[in-house]
Amino acid sequence: MQPARISTKGSQRPHKAGMDEPRAVRWLMIGVALLFLGLFLLIPLAAVFSQALEKGLSVYLAAIREPDAISAIQLTVVAAAVSVPLNMYFGIMAAWAIAKFEFPGKSLLITMIDLPFTVSPIISGMVYVLIFGLQGWFGSWLNDHDIKIIFAVPGIILATVFVTFPFVARELIPLMESQGREEEEAALTLGASGLKTFFLVTLPNIKWGLLYGVILCNARAMGEFGAVSVVSGHIRGSTNTIPLHVEILYNEYNFAAAFAVASLLAMLALVTLAIKSLVEWKMREEV
Amino acid sequence: MSIEIVNISKLFGSFKALKDVNLMIPSGELVALLGPSGCGKTTLLRIIAGLESPDSGSILFNGEEATQRHVGERKIGFVFQHYALFRHMTVFENVAFGLRVKERKIRPNKEQIKSKVFELLRLIQLDHLSEKYPAQLSGGQRQRVALARALAVEPQVLLLDEPFGALDAKVRLELRRWLRRLHDEIQVTSIFVTHDQEEALEVSDLVVVMNEGKVEQIGTPEEVYNHPATPFTFDFLGNVNLFRGRVHKELEPLRDVELVMPKNIGASDAPVVGYVRSHDIEVGREPIDNASYKAEVLHVHAIGPVVKVELFLCETKETVEVELSRTVSRKLALQKGETVFARPRKLRVFSP
Fold first, then answer.
1. Are B40 and B34 within 8 A, CB to CB?
2. Do the interacting molecules here have an ipTM over 0.85?
């Protein structure tokens, strides 16, 4: 008896007929996505760098080394350096409480965490002016004690903390919820204290999610414009962050300098994206 | 270590998970908490562990009040259904965890920890996998590591929450026998929760049957299977067929029929229900006595070690399933639609 022969003529790579879109549709969708990416991301990014270097490297460097620019960079770094650790601490605590425990007011807390996302940044800034400004609730008290919050560095830090509030929490909550409580319970039954359980069991499990949340938080902290603009007062050399400084330079028609300083933020964006991709890759590896 | 559970109640919102449970767990025994989902067995186990606190009642360890003790101070070992191994630690580090987190004063040194861990890994026959991560192990291996981890701190009680529930049938069988052998070797008081009656009957020294937050019956596997005290226990531990009837004042002893009746059966002519196992029913073509019920053959299922025959009882309009040996079935040569007589040999009677 002849063994059955399988004809391979006419069949190319195996394909799941029922599941694949026709090739044309696939290429169309990829094409549209790439077009979007190009139009809204790559071209502006390229424009920033080309405009920044238009007048040559020396002008670029001079714009960045200029004293007002340096103080703007310093203020940006300070604002980030305060708000990121604060929000990291808060984010871990909130996510831990929400994911591992039941308590009254839990849904309220979750809603409040999302608040800075839903509110326009301008309003976020305005709120602080209304509370701490001269005509605000604490205005006269602050004035009497010669404490400056609005139109000074503390106000900028407050506004930055507010708008970057949710990032770490929102990243950690679903992560910790999906990880459940069993590992922590196991640690407790083995005699570990609450604190030891947190550092030896919980923290290593969330390290990539935490890093992800922190870099997003940092990117937003450094790039925030609206809220900071309202509370800042735009005093050159003391209450300007990088985004505000860029605005000032641009309004003075000093385009090369404006784009030069803006390119710092663009580079931050690229670094953030690179770290983000690395973290995502690591997280996928773990699953 | 013996465990005494006194008047434990637990509410989750409005749901009564445990209703005034009283239980005595003798030292050194392997006890099964058996019952359907939602009966409260896992809640009870977690209360014993200290992972939940009861709304009322108390837990005594060796006669000492332990209800307020923190979970870490109860000297228990807990094994979870889904292992709960620390995913970022190797097998060695998982098993060593309990020893490493001890307070500085009582913590063993590195060498002692290493030898203890390897002793346990050899016990579970996984010493060659000490550097692997949980994700690289099979389900059965993970559960054995979880057991070793729990044993590392030398607990006085081992608590297992459906330990084999997440494993496939063959592995489940192997591990359940392995657990029995392990228990015989180390003799630690152990309590495990299961909804699988076969597992409970095969492995344990004592079975606690639970239903709806209450204890239905406590006994050895033999007692609980052969002498069930309540309809629920009868039904849960094996198949059941119902034969309904009425009480007659003069009970003539029926030849070779074993009748177990409750003491206060009530007035004559009171309705009762007889619970019968499928293998305790005989089938014939002629009625023998009052115990023969007329029935129609619905279905004959002749595949497997026993032949299962489905009969429709004409009088009570109920269906029963009879298990016959292949030999008996061949002799009878039953056909679908035939009229036969079913006679229960052993009945446990309850009031409906």
1. no
2. no
